[in-house]
Amino acid sequence: MEEYVLLLDIGGTEIKVNGIKEDNQFLLKKTKHYPSLASESEEVIISHLVEIIEEMTKDLSEILKLKAIGFSIPGPFDYQEGISLMTGLRKYESLYKVNIKNKLQEKLSQIKLSNVPLIFENDGTCFALGEYLQHNIKGKGIYLTLGTGCGSTFIEHGEIIIEGFGLNKIGMIYDTPFLDKTIDDYLSVAGLKKLAEKRNVFFSDGLSLFKEAELGNEGATKVFDDFGKLISEALSCFIIEFNPDEVVFGGQISKSFHYFRQPLEQNLLFKELSFRSSKDTASATFYGLNQVIKKELGEK
Question: What is the pTM of this model?
C-alpha cells in the first residue's frame, strides 16, 4: 500500500492542510484551509487539530497508509518535544508551555492513530527549505514569512544557520530590537496597521489594504512603500553580516510584494542582491516540511 504524510501548516490566522505521497506528488490538487482558532482555549485548539486530522485521513485508510503527520508551526517552540513556548505574540497564548505532542497523541489514540509519528518544525524553516530546494539555490539566502508575525530562516549551502550574524539563540530575528519594539512588531500585520494609522488610511487587514492598492488607492500604496522602507531598515545589518545571494518573502503580506519591492531595490547596500516573493508559500512550506519528516524518519 502506498504511503503518504499528512502536513499541517499552522498559522496565526488559518491552518493549511495537504499531504505528499511517495512519488512527491501532493495528495490534494487544492490545499484545504481551516480557521486557526488561535485565540481560543487549549481544549478547543487541540480538538480542532484532531478534527482536521480525522477529516483528512478517514477516507484514505483503505487506499493509502499514513506514515507520519507533520506540523509547520511558529516559534518559539520546542520542536523536539512538541511544546509551545509562544507568549505575547498575539496567537496561541492558551498553548503556552503545553505539550501539544502528548495532547494530540492522547486524542489521536481514540481514532486509531496512536502509532503515527508526530513531527514538528518551525514554519519559517519549512518555507525556507522548500524555497531553497525547489529553486536549486547553491549559495546563501534569507527567507522571511510576513503575516501575524515575522518568521525567518538563514540558509547557507543547504544548511540552516542557527547562530551568528545577529541571530537570536534559535537562529531567528523576530525578537531583535527595532525602533521602539521588535522586528516582529513591525514586519507583520501589526506593523502595517501602525503605518496605515500614521497616514490616516483605514486598515482592517493586509488583504483589504492590498485590494485598495490594486484599485489605485494612493494612500494604500504609500503604506506599502513605507513598509518596504521599514523592511530595508530592519534587514540592513543582517544583510551586511550574512551577505546572502537572495532574500525571499512568503506569507500573506508577500502577495503585496510588488508594492514594497522598490524601496528594497533602491537601497544601495542591496545592489547585488536578488529579491523575490514566493509563488506559493504553502506549497514551499509543505515541501520543506516533507524534507524534515524524511530526515527525521531516516529517509533520503
Answer: 0.86
